[in-house]
Prior knowledge:
- The chain has two helices and five strands.
- The protein is α+β, with helices and mostly antiparallel strands.
- Helices cover about 35% and strands about 25% of the residues.
- The chain is rod-shaped, with a radius of gyration of 21 Å.
- It has helices at about 5-25, 30-55; strands at about 60-65, 80, 90-95, 100-105, 115-125.
- The longest helix has 26 residues, at about 30-55.
- It folds into two domains: about 5-55; about 60-125, no CATH class.
- A five-stranded mixed β-barrel has the order 1-2-3-4-5.
Amino acid sequence: MLINLLWKVIMGLTAAALIVYAITPNASLGYLVKLFALNWGIALVVFLAWPHVRGVKKGDLIFVSEESAMPLLFALPNATSKDNGRLNGFIRVEFGDGTTGIGKIVKYQGLITHAEVRLFEKDVPMKVTN
């Protein structure tokens, strides 16, 4: 979820803009508005580029969907990534019950959504009976 990253970038850049405005002699309010516009531009570029730069990392919470399932607008994470990966790449995933599987990354994380992986193979552990 990128909402935390976006918030930190905006707050950091706003603090930097206010400091620059405070130490610049004869700065006008128009100069401050330009600094804020620059801040929002940088924040939007970071927000749009960050998922593609980062990809999916080992240990990330992800949403795993079945191959035939309809895509959901907002879904809670139901697995953890066991590998690093990029868009259209394959990674191993681990579900909450301990089962594992292999899936293809179909979508990176969004503002309030987690990365989505389409499940291809699920390993079901064999039960041993005595």
